Amino acid sequence: METRLPHFILLVWALAFAAGAAAQDPQLSQFYAAPMYLNPALTGNTQQDRIGLNYRLQWPGVRPGYKTYAVAYDHRSVQLNSGFGGMVMHDRAGTLGLSFTQASFNYSYEARINRRRAVRGGIRAGYTMRTFDWGNALFADQIIRENATTTVEQAMMRNTSYFDFSVGFLYYSEQFWGGFSINHLNEPQQSLYLDGDATLPMRTSVHVGYRFAVDGKDFRFSETTMTLAAHYKAQQLWDQLDLGGYVDHQQLTFGLWYRGLPAVKAYQPGYPNDDAVILMVGYETPYQLRLVYSYDVTVSKLTAKSGGAHEISLSYEWPKNSKKRRYRTVPCPKF
Fold it and tell me: Which of 9, 89, 128, 258 has the fewest CB atoms within 10 Å, i.e. is most exposed?
């Protein structure tokens, strides 16, 4: 029984998410490397078409960890002042395979204030499937009844699905941007019990950034720039702040971030809202292919036992086929 007890503990943890209720959304340390997930208003925020890949392995020390995958493509239509895009995200947590897969469509519209400033609004409509793997499940009543092969617990569905809607807004200029997004506007029902009640609470995200030259040149001609940014997100009782920045020097990128709210909020006495210090390094090829790696150094009470988190993003932009650009657009913020 001692060898099987950890499975029971993991099951209880998983059921807290499956049946109970307020599960948290996946978070990415490289949040600007997943612009359509951060804010649907960022859809098509480049002068070119773009494809992006994201992978995150969180807490590998708690095997098998928590894995998040995402692939996205977006396109900017200058004639329509619009951006169109699609994204697929998959997240899998723990040995019991509590996971979800979401396919979504994004749309954004841009209104120019003047030659150097603009605002954008966006919407995301997604369809999500949540699944749970019964293969390794072991309930307490099975242990008590000498490892019985069946359980007397309430039956659960193997999967559930729902529609999900989000909106976002962004103001930006050549060097500054600020915006917010509201996710799960319809608070969909995600319970895996037939008659359960586990609505997905709304998640709010607020993000700002400022980019400037550090080599003494005009910003538009600089080869070394620094970007300072902040990202605050809140979902029901849970909230955190990412604060930091990165330096772009020619084709190299170096960054340092901190995640948490230790001096502002503690969830209970003795447990400050501390999470991680994030180290980041990246490289962009002459063909506009950018690879970025980051590692979360855990500073909470989980310490090194969690194994931190590894994250990789890959993005590629390519020119449109149009030979002439009749419209001059405001440069958009990008990671």
Answer: 9
